[in-house]
């Protein structure tokens, strides 16, 4: 009998580090009980995972943590975002519901059916989404208690060419896109990120993806929780879609480590 896969993992950093590297979309694992509710045949599902997974971002965050002067904490999703997407709102606030990509996806990246039209997302939300959100909330609260602040750096990647599901994909697609939040991304955090990634190519803001992740308990309420999303264009560090990492990955990991050091100081 195979053990149940880990759903997420908090990897400890230094006691005095306020930084949490959040890696929500790096995994491809789908439990058998969840796989049964997905319409795609195996080959089509593997293709969808190639497109939707932020491949190698867990390795990127691990390398950055290793290189940083003060080790950051890492919160890593060990299940595919096709199980649940922990960064979506679990209700009508989520704009991606319009393309079938709320907290539980019902459509693919190419807007084809992923789950049946009458699929009930409730059990997946209860089983996977809420425990993830609670654990991330506790991780942030622990950093606040230990250091007086928490800095969430959301580690993502995105495809070079726009995919049909993207709502705002008609703008620039720079090598590095920084997603910001009006409340949780102060100018100094943004400036330090721009400096850290400056040598990796052009750095853009909020295009093709915007915003950043903060647990709802703190969202829009707690200014000591700051956050930034780092979206890395995939051709800069891997073969698309879903292929191996390229020599660009260590360079980007070094830039991420520089950001960790700058904001953790």
From TrEMBL:
InterPro entries: N-FG_amidohydro (IPR007709). This is N-formylglutamate amidohydrolase. It holds the Pfam family FGase. Keywords: Hydrolase. The keyword Hydrolase applies. The keyword Cell wall biogenesis/degradation does not apply. One of its GO terms (molecular function) is N-formylglutamate deformylase activity.
């Amino acid at each position: 009998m195979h053990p149940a896969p880990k759903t997420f993992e908090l990897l400890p950093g230094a006691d005095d580090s306020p930084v949490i590297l959040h890696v929500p979309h790096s995994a491809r694992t789908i439990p058998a009980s969840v796989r049964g509710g997905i319409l795609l045949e195996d080959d089509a599902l593997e293709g969808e995972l190639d497109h939707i997974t932020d491949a190698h971002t867990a390795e990127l965050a691990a390398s950055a943590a290793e290189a940083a002067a003060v080790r950051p904490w890492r919160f890593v999703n060990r299940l595919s975002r096709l199980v649940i997407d922990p960064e979506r709102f679990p209700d009508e606030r989520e704009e991606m519901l319009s393309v079938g990509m709320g907290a539980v996806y019902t459509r693919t990246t190419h807007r084809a059916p992923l789950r049946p039209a009458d699929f009930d997302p409730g059990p997946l939300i209860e089983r996977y989404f809420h425990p993830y959100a609670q654990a991330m909330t506790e991780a942030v609260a622990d950093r606040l208690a230990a250091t007086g602040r928490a800095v969430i750096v959301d580690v993502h990647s995105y495809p070079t060419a726009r995919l049909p599901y993207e709502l705002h994909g008609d703008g620039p697609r720079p090598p590095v896109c920084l997603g910001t939040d009006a409340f949780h991304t102060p100018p100094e955090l943004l400036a330090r990120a721009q400096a850290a990634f400056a040598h990796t190519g052009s750095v853009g803001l909020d295009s093709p993806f915007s915003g950043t992740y903060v647990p709802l308990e703190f969202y829009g309420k707690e200014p000591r929780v700051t956050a930034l999303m780092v979206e890395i264009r995939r051709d800069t560090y891997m073969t698309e879609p879903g292929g191996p990492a390229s020599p660009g990955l260590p360079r980007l990991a070094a830039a991420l480590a520089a950001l960790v050091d700058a904001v953790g100081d």
